[in-house]
Design a protein that fits this description.
The chain is mostly helical. It has a domain at 282-506. Helices cover 76% and strands 2% of the residues. The protein contains 20 helices and 2 strands. The chain has helices at residues 10-14, 16-31, 37-65, 87-114, 120-139, 143-162, 170-200, 205-215, 219-235, 245-251, 254-279, 285-311, 316-336, 340-371, 382-385, 387-401, 407-422, 425-451, 469-487, 490-504; strands spanning 68-71, 82-85. A two-stranded antiparallel ribbon has the order 1-2. Helix 12 (285-311) runs antiparallel to helix 13 (316-336) and helix 14 crosses helix 20 (490-504). The longest helix is centred in the last third of the chain and has 32 residues, at 340-371. The chain is globular, with a radius of gyration of 22 Å.
Length: 506
């Protein structure tokens, strides 16, 4: 992959770690002054393309150099702020960059349908701020900067969720609840960072890890650990800190739901991994105990409880939102194993879940654009009415269950292998049983889409139709990825193996 490093001229490549965050922030200011939605979308599209190219170039650079350290303002770390890219966060950076690019393509018809024309420039501006915040969380090597970028992404996320009020006033309540809980999470996190600074005198994560390795962990660092885990756990929608997520996903604009489901919780999960395995030492007793008795146990409970809640939902997006909580449980189980194989499986599911949920929410957005449907019963007959979108929805849904020939099978296979390596037979049983629950709620959706003969939303005969091409392209790409990476998963397996080894390998 070293050839990817040559995508950019040497001058640009030298500053790519900073530019990947700076470009969206500058573009956000430009988008705010755009006279109409198409102009705002064009700014977002150019920005997302640049970020995707930077992400690919940085992937090549990491493959060749191992670790990239960029000192902001020329101030060397740990005194200055460092952007640090290694095999762990390059996987997440690439995911956010590529999914952001695909979601922006999808946004043009979706945003035009849901956001008032005079507000679309501001909408794209807020989106770009959120995009920059997620990218910043991913690549910063400074613990306080993680807090800053988390808040940048969160504050703008509250805004773009609330802008769904034009279609559904419940978006305002959803955004408010997210704001309250997100603020609580951020408060817990920054208190934890403060305790770390008290114990080590440093905010650079690599430097904190070095000092803790030399001086050991005392009560202050244990308190820091607890506050950070709660704060980031809330941002990642870790059970039982997930209560903000169902309404946020259900009532936000369709483009926002697809973007946040594909990226936001994934970035927060990455931050959890970074602190658990890079800053703190997983071999320390209180960290090891938390992996088994907090993350693994909470993950298994989430797999069952959230799946059970999904089964009884009547709103399609709320069903998939509860499904997301269950899928975070799978990631938490992999993380909780505390092994290289477990972490690799968790990271693989993180990437695969982004591809699944991106396609699923994009398809629901296409259904909503054409027919205004939200309820599960209103999806009836759409397999014949919108066959392309329904096919993408079906592929991603089967992948979520873990059916062979889809990437969801890969995720669960690697989780089972990791559990067997750990000797956790109960985890294998939990994986299989929770997959059966997923089969129930996804099967329910697919039966309505394909077997019902008279769609309840049709007041008259409706001919076969298709979503706009700008929605179909990213949807089809993600659906294809759900199949392709089962047939040849080597790229994702190698990427996640390197990520796990970067923080847990010898």
């Amino acid at each position: 992959m070293e050839f990817l490093a040559n995508l950019l001229p040497a001058g640009l490549m030298a500053h790519a770690p900073a530019l990947v965050v700076v470009v969206p922030l500058v573009a956000a200011a430009i988008a705010a002054f755009m006279p109409n939605g198409k102009a705002g979308w064009a700014v977002a599209m150019v920005t997302a393309t640049i970020v995707a190219v930077f992400s690919l170039a940085l992937l090549g650079a990491v493959a060749g150099e191992g670790v990239i350290s960029y000192a902001m303002g020329g101030w060397a770390p740990p005194a200055g702020i460092e952007y640090r890219i290694d095999a762990l966060n390059i996987a997440v950076l690439l995911l956010v960059g590529i999914l952001g690019f695909l979601c922006v393509i999808y946004a043009l018809p979706s945003v035009a349908d849901e956001i008032a024309e005079d507000k679309q420039g501001l909408f794209y501006s807020a989106f770009l701020v959120c995009f920059a915040g997620l990218l910043g969380v991913t690549i910063t090597g400074d613990a306080f900067n993680v807090f800053v970028f988390l808040e940048i992404s969160s504050l703008s996320a509250y805004t773009i969720i609330a802008m769904g009020a034009g279609k559904d006033r419940r978006a305002l309540t959803a955004a408010y609840n997210y704001l309250i809980l997100g603020t609580i999470g951020a408060t817990f996190f920054v208190i934890g960072v403060g305790f770390l600074y008290m114990a080590t005198g440093s905010l650079n994560m690599a430097d904190i890890a070095r000092i803790l390795a030399e001086n050991g962990h005392d009560r202050v660092t244990q308190a820091a650990f607890a506050f950070i885990i709660v704060g980031l756990g809330l941002k990642a929608a870790m059970f039982p800190l997930h209560m903000w997520l169902p309404n946020a996903y259900a009532f936000a604009p369709n483009f926002v739901t697809a973007f946040l489901a594909s990226t936001a919780t994934k970035v927060a999960f990455y931050a959890l991994v970074r602190f658990l395995f890079s800053v703190f030492n997983p071999e320390v007793n209180f960290v090891d105990l938390s992996l088994t008795w907090v993350f693994a146990v909470a993950g298994v409970i989430a797999m069952f409880m959230a799946s059970a809640q999904a089964i009884f939902q009547t709103d399609a997006r709320r069903l998939l939102a509860y499904s997301s909580v269950a899928q975070v449980g799978y990631m938490m189980l992999g993380l909780g194993m505390g092994t290289v194989l477990g972490l690799q499986a968790g990271m693989l599911h993180l990437i695969n879940h982004a591809l699944m949920k991106g396609a699923l929410f994009m398809a629901l957005g296409a259904f909503a654009l054409k027919f205004g449907v939200r309820e599960i019963k209103d999806l009836a007959g759409l397999g014949r009415t919108m066959p392309i979108s329904a096919s993408a929805f079906t592929i991603a849904g089967l992948s979520l269950v873990g059916v062979p020939l889809t990437i969801g099978f890969d995720s669960k296979w690697y989780l089972i292998i990791a559990a067997l390596d750990r000797g956790w037979w109960w985890a294998v049983a939990a994986l299989i049983l929770s997959s059966l629950l997923a089969l129930i709620y996804i099967g329910r959706l697919l039966m309505v889409v394909w077997t019902e003969t008279a769609p309840s939303h049709q007041g008259q005969q409706v001919k076969r139709t298709h979503a706009p091409i700008m929605m179909l392209i990213p949807m089809a790409v993600l659906a294809f990825a759900n199949l392709y990476f089962f047939l040849d998963a080597s790229f994702l397996v190698n990427l996640t193996e390197a990520a796990a080894n970067a923080v847990m390998g010898d």
